[in-house]
User: Fold this.
Amino acid sequence: MKSRFVLAAVVALFATQLHAKTLIFCSEGSPEGFTPSLYTAGTTFDASSRQVYNRLVEFEIGTTKIIPGLAESWTISPDGLIYTFNLRKGVKFHTTRNFTPSRNFNAEDVLFSFERQFSKDHPYHMVSGGAYEYFNGMSMPDLIKRIEKVDDYTVRFILNRPEAPMIANLAMDFASIHSAEYAEKMATAGTMDTFDQSPVGTGPFQLVAYQKDAFIRYKAHPDYFRGKAAIDDLVFAITPDASVRYQKLKAGECHVMPYPNPADIAAMRTDPAVNLMSQEGLNVGYLAYNALMPPFDNPRVRKALNMAINKQAIIDAVFQGAGKVAKNPIPPTIWSYNNATVDDSYDPAAAKAALAAAGVKNLKMKVWAMPVQRPYNPNARRMAELIQADFGKVGVEVEIVSYEWGEYLKRSKEKDRDGAVLLGWTGDNGDPDNFLAVLLGCDGVGGSNRAQWCYKPFEDLIQKAKVVSDIAERTRLYEQAQIAFKSQAPWATIAHSVVFKPLRKEVVGFKIDPFGGHSFYGVDLK
Amino acid sequence: MFRFLLSRLTMIVPTFIGVTIAAFSFIRLLPGDPILLMAGERGVTPERRAELEAVMGFDRPLWEQYLGFLGDLLQGNLGVSIVTKAPVLEEFLGRFPATLELSVIAIVFAVALGLPAGVIAAVRRGSIFDHTVMGISLTGYSMPIFWWGLLLIILFSGILGWTPVSGRISFLYYFEPVTGFMLIDSLLSGQPGAFQSAVMHLILPAVVLGTIPLAVIARQTRSAMLEVLSEDYVRTARAKGLSPARVIGVHALRNALITVVTVIGLQVGVLLAGAILTETIFAWPGIGKWMIDSIFRRDYPSVQGGLLMIASIVMLVNLIVDLTYGLINPSIRHER
Assistant:
């Protein structure tokens, strides 16, 4: 009995009551961990980089605009090879149960955060698995020659080649800045794994407790450099089922929920307790022909097939209204979107005539339908069936095929792939290069360029835009690239999804993140 | 009794080895590649793929991977999750108390209602009560768990507001877990209202998870009781003038319990399977949801470790059930 009282007393010591302003976010799942560079899931970034950490440069919440973060300012050398960052002074790291910082943020922290990912000899490189998929995926090991500390508040990135999207890359989650002092302390204590499980950052919220699959609790960082958050406590109530999330929102058990069921949207619109926000997503769903295989190597055939697709019917049936017809390979929310391009209009009779003019008769083809739901395509099978019916009307016989998701991704890359593939993309950094070069560049043929399309005039434009720093010039180049894309039609651009975000009416200041994330700095409860 | 126990334990060894082979091969037989799934649309270069395979140990032949798995197992190591990079045993043990707590309460609920309902239905065979119990239990058995859970949430949490929607305790309370069992930890915390909140959060998931076992137990108890009640010794007991309560409670039920205990033992497997859906609906942080996520991500170490742990638990429970037969009916242990 006595020991039970002692135990209760110990527990009571750790027990805390929530403060007045607690915002509860019904998140959809558990994070993989708390070091963003090690992982790729948005759920992980929501729990880590977007609350706990800052980056040298950041996306202004709710936009794709780059703003200063831990770097107050930066300069780029005329040859585009040297990026010099002037770091913010007086930025404090979180004080946690494991760590009390003895100094403010400085250049050492920047070097640590990147060298851990960059250098295979770094003591932390292999800790927690050592897979830095975004760092590698954004070609940073090829791009960065070295990173130098000029002084305590100046760092310099020296590149192997000019790369205009570099600044946007550094605003991505993998580029979050960690405390080198904390890392050293954990290494000295022989508990390097703790570094990735108990995060210490400079961000607006600091981790208090995490119980896997149950909750994550944060409190506002009192010394946050942009000023303390309006809410005192932030709780992620991990709730995997979308219908249950909505019930919790209605019952007041949470304030904000992500990823509502499309079927619940109508009820949410009329729910007096709910404010249903919406915004076009930073994504595109497409049907990629194989431009290496006849007759799809002929742009006239591709354009004819595009004219046979009733995209509006797809938006109505597959997206249930939560989508917008796509005409360009980049979404309208991204800078340089060319609104002047003209889409291939839905005209089955003209499509049939164009196919005949191109010498195509009795065409049989495969359409690949993804086996999974993605933000840019909530039901690929249904979409494929609609396309099958549309193509049938112009005399093209379609067989729908599908594979397990990993196999699908692998086989769809093959240059001799049979048929057109339904796929899509969600932007990483808000830069047009992240869509146009990755998905349609010549380097991507046999890889992420599922259309296997390499078109010199287009390639020249996007390669030039990659090395020009001037935004106006880049915009002009990307606008021309979109015109070249439309003239050749390697894809049928299908849709951009609309993201819905239900929140309770008492929540103010929340902004929908175009990247699909959730940031709670600047959010308040009235 | 010792020989009986020894024979049961001897059977467990080959079963366990079989389970390790099944657990190891099951997830690898499924189509899907963990590295491709991790990379998604972004893809991965052949060089990077080779690096990752080496880090994860997938570059070794399958038999070597299996022997490595067995070797680690003998040292009490279930491996490291390729997704979270945390030890699988730690991931499992962190979630298991939540599943155990829910399963125990669900089975208590199922037995507490199912056993008396089955007994009364058998005693009053053909009555309205009998038909009602059997009708309800058939409905309960056929109920899709997901639909049933959502229905209860909408009614009791959404419309009536009697119970919380999901989770294990209100976010008003926070304390460091001591045992991992929320009912105990909330009591230990000393925070007023915490225990009540934990109980309220447990009601709906326990009812949902316990519904199928409840239906099965009620029906099996009724059948077993009907069989026993027609036996000669029961007629003899009645003829001797024993009270109906004593005839049913002592003479009939004790023999009927052998069937019922077997059913309860088998329901442990059903509970763990049902926990996957129940935990998803009620955001219950147990092993069910974790296993599903691990399977979808092709997290080989987590799936094989989790399957092994679950199979071990089911084997352990069935061993206990076997031993319980001996306690209920001593003739069984003497026969063997």
About this structure: Chain A touches chain B through 62 residues (CB under 8 Å). The two ends of chain A are 46 Å apart (CA to CA).
